[in-house]
Design a protein that fits this description.
Layout (H helix, E strand, L loop, with lengths): L1 H19 L2 H29 L1 E2 L2 E2 H21 L7 H6 L3 H5 L5 H7 L4 H22 L5 H26 L12 H12 L9 H6 L11 H7 L11 H27 L12
Antiparallel strand pairs: 1-2
Helix pairs in contact: 2-3, 2-7, 3-7, 3-8, 8-9, 8-12
Length: 276
C-alpha cells in the first residue's frame, strides 16, 4: 500500500507539472472539461425541470442522481487516465509492452500510472455542485453508516465502469487493429445511458441495463438505495456485489487475453504491423 501511495504522489506531482507549465492551455483544458461534463447531464436535467421529475423520481432526486453519475464517471477517468481506462488502446497499439517490462506487477502499474487528480479536479465541480444543490430537498438522514454506504457504492460504480471497459477492451488482444478503440465505444455507451432512471422500463430492457450493459449500476440503482427508494433488503450491497462479479469477469477475460498476447506478441513491431 505504501508503494501505491508513493506512486500516486509522484503521479500527482507530474500531473500538476503538466498543467502548470502552460497556463493558457491548462485553462482551456479545465473549461472544456467542465463543459463536457455538464453537457453529458443537461438533457436529463432539463427533462426533470420541465416535468418536475421523471417517473417515480422527483426533481431533487434526479439532480442528486446526476451528480452521483457525474462523480463516478469523472473519478474513473481521474483514477485511470493516460489510456489506462481505455485499455484497448494500450493493447492495440503495442503499448502494453511498456508496462510488462517494468520491474513491478502489471496490476500495480495499471492502478497507479493513470492517476491524474489535478486534471480531474475541474470535472468534479458539476457533480459536487448538483449534489450539494439537491441535498436539503432530498430529505435523507445521514450519519457515519450512510456516508460509508455512499463511499462504498461510489467505489463500486467506478469499478463497474472500469470492469466494463476491460471486458470489452480485452478483445484487442485477439484483434489489435479492429478493436483498438472498442473501450472508447463501450465507455461512450455506458456514459450516455448512465443518467437515466430505469423505473418505467420493461423487465427485459431493465435486466439488460443491469447486466449486459450495466448502466443502471452507475447511478440509478445505488442512488435509489442511498435515497431509500428501494424496498429490497440489503439494497445498498447490490451495486458492490455487481462490481465484484464484473471485476472477477474482467480479470478472467483480461488474463486469458494476456496469455494469448504472451504467445503472439504485438503486431506493432512486425513488418505488417498496422502502426509500423
Amino acid at each position: 500500500m505504501l508503494q501505491i501511495l508513493r506512486a500516486w504522489r509522484v503521479q500527482t506531482y507530474l500531473d500538476f507539472l503538466f498543467l502548470a507549465r502552460d497556463r493558457r492551455n491548462s485553462s482551456f483544458y479545465m473549461i472544456a472539461d467542465v463543459i463536457l461534463t455538464v453537457a453529458g447531464i443537461t438533457g436529463v436535467l432539463l427533462l426533470a425541470e420541465r416535468f418536475g421529475g421523471i417517473g417515480a423520481w422527483n426533481r431533487p432526486q434526479i439532480v442528486f442522481m446526476l451528480g452521483f453519475a457525474s462523480l463516478a464517471m469523472i473519478m474513473s477517468q481521474g483514477l485511470f487516465g493516460m489510456n489506462v481506462l481505455w485499455i484497448s488502446r494500450r493493447i492495440g497499439r503495442g503499448q502494453l509492452d511498456h508496462l510488462l517490462i517494468q520491474p513491478r506487477p502489471l496490476w500495480k502499474s495499471l492502478l497507479t500510472e493513470g492517476f491524474i487528480p489535478v486534471s480531474m479536479g475541474p470535472g468534479l465541480i458539476p457533480g459536487i455542485g448538483l449534489m450539494a444543490w439537491s441535498w436539503n430537498a432530498v430529505s435523507i438522514q445521514t450519519g457515519p453508516a450512510w456516508w460509508a454506504a455512499f463511499a462504498l457504492n461510489l467505489v463500486a460504480a467506478i469499478a463497474v465502469i472500469t470492469s466494463f471497459s476491460y471486458i470489452w477492451g480485452s478483445l484487442a488482444f485477439w484483434a489489435p487493429a479492429g478493436a483498438e478503440e472498442i473501450s472508447s465505444s463501450a465507455l461512450r455507451l455506458i456514459s450516455e445511458l448512465k443518467p437515466f432512471p430505469l423505473d418505467g422500463m420493461g423487465r427485459t430492457l431493465k435486466s439488460g441495463l443491469l447486466s449486459i450493459i450495466p448502466a443502471g449500476f452507475i447511478a440509478w440503482y445505488p442512488v435509489g438505495a442511498l435515497l431509500g427508494l428501494r424496498t429490497t433488503d440489503y439494497a445498498l450491497l447490490f451495486t458492490p456485489l455487481a462490481a465484484l462479479i464484473m471485476s472477477g469477469l474482467a480479470a478472467i477475460v483480461f488474463n486469458r487475453g494476456l496469455a494469448h498476447y504472451a504467445r503472439t506478441g504485438s503486431q506493432r513491431y512486425l513488418d505488417f504491423g498496422h502502426r509500423r
